[in-house]
Amino acid sequence: MVRDGANVAMMKKLGFEGFDPAGGKVLMRVDFNVPLDKERCITDDTRIRAALPTINRLLELGAGVILMSHLGRPKGRIDQTFSLRPVADRLADLLPVPVKFAQDSVGPDAQKKASKLQPGEVLLLENLRFNPGETDNDAGFSAGLAGLGDLYVNDAFGTAHRAHASTVGVTAHFNECRAGLLMQRELEFLGTLLGKAESPFVAILGGAKVSGKVDVILNLLGKVDILILGGGMIFTFLQVHGMKIGTSLLDEDSTDVVKEITLKAKESSTQLVLPVDCIVAKEFSDKSDKKEVLVTDIPDGWMGLDIGSKTVVRYCEILNGARTVFWNGPMGVFELPSFAGGTRAVCQAVAEATDKGAKSVVGGGDSVAAAQQMGFAERISHISTGGGASLEFMAGRDLPGITALANV
Ligand code: AMP
Fold first, then answer.
1. Distance CA 83, CA 29 (A)
2. How far apart are CA 144 and CA 26, in angstroms?
3. What is the 284 CA–ligand 1 centroid distance (Å)?
């Protein structure tokens, strides 16, 4: 549906065209699940900043904005360690208007503050997950939330793959539901990849285990021209192809599915590309002995922790000719500087392809972190904010939060 990208009508329906919230109260789901340190100070406010365009647009349109989010996993109990209060303070620094804060989400404080909210004002509710009704998608909790606003906007792509009260249950109570600007951008970029991506379309998938990426790999076969693999997952492929992998990561439960992927790739129009060499080490440590070997020559007792230089050259050549790129998952243990080279080279190649006009999308926590740490994030067309959600989307699954919006 939406994921076809071709579905312009759907994007129109979810977008802000014809949306007139003036004088009303918009209940808006945001993703303010930010990292906090021991003193409960926010260590990265990217997610708060990402919601600003939609909040500001709604304020400009003359709405009062009631924001709701989860933070961490308080498991349905009030736990001040997970209070959204620090987020309200940070948000107040970033917005041109004061930010009110309700000490609950559907209780008396939220009801009182929401009922008094005026156009142009902002109210943030306390952590939704202090109430078990949120993750249970409870009808009563959904109704309680919905009662606070007149219109609903969902800008939390990162939680769109969860059927919770604030993403799904609540939508049943509104005549008008829209996607926020951040959500719209996610749907446009990811939707285009699965719909009308310009060829050559290259997907590059890495990360630790095959099991986490199987559905994405299977869904992309036949949709992308070239599917490049890297990271720990390649060793399961190499072993299935009869090679010795030493002490490298082996995802034993995935050997059957690796055979299936290999077979399907042969039958599809997608070229599946595996590394030809890798960096091996004796131990999982930055200080370990290491050397570069062909994937056919991995010595006993050594583990592969990054792709090798011949592979890097090959992958960069492929990426250099791409018009569309989707990248998820590091090529090696990029957290250790000795094994970050493959990920850095690939990231740079994605940025260079983008400089030359390719459309590039990076999704998933670790590849996003790598792109940011290595200084290439600004040169990527779109960095997806939702790791789990973007993978579910790329695996071709319906995201309950999007389906609920679209069905209103
Ligand atoms: P994922 O969450 O599945 O995308 O996996 C990301 C993790 O994969 C990172 O923490 C990397 O350190 C790890 N990783 C990448 N390559 C390897 C490898 N060759 N061996 C072990 N772990 C790896």
1. 16
2. 14
3. 12
- Expressed in angstroms and rounded, the spacing between residue 350 Cα and the centre of ligand 1 is 19
List phi, psi (to 5°) of 278. Answer: -155, 165
Question: CA angle, corner 25, sides to 21 and 30, nearest 5?
Answer: 95
Domains 14-182 and 189-394 share a fold: yes
Q: Nearest 5°: phi and psi at 66? A: -105, 115
- Rounded Cα distance between 184 and 228, Å, is 28
Q: Which residue ranges make up each domain of the chain?
A: 14-182, 189-394
pLDDT at 2 over 50: no
14-182 maps to which CATH number? 3.40.50.1260
- Ligand 1 pocket, mutate which of 279, 333, 335 (most atoms under 8 A from CB): 333
Specify the ligand 1 atom closest to the Cα of 212: 3
What percent of the chain has a predicted confidence (pLDDT) above 70? 98
pTM above 0.85? yes
Report whether 384 contacts 371 (CB < 8 A). Answer: no
Looking at domain 189-394, its CATH architecture is 3-Layer(aba) Sandwich (3.40)
Q: Whose CA is nearest to atom 13 of ligand 1?
A: 208
Q: Is the C-beta atom of 231 inside 6 A of ligand 1?
A: yes
What pLDDT sits at residue 1?
Answer: 39
Alpha-carbon distances of 236 from 63, 66, 118, 304, rounded to whole Å: 53, 48, 58, 11
**How far apart (Å, rounded) are the C-alpha atoms in residues 344 and 307?**
11
pLDDT in tens, 59-105: 999 999 999 999 999 999 999 999 999 999 999 999 999 999 999 99
Pocket test for ligand 1, best of 237, 288, 366 (most atoms within 8 A of CB): 366
At a CB cut-off of 8 Å and minimum separation 6, what does 95 contact? 52, 55, 56, 59, 122
Is the minimum distance from the CB of 332 to ligand 1 under 6 angstroms?
A: yes
Residues serving a catalytic function are 47, 209, 365, 388
* Closest residue CA from atom 6 of ligand 1: 207
- Strands across the sheet with 324-328, in order? 271-273, 226-229, 201-205, 324-328, 359-362, 382-383
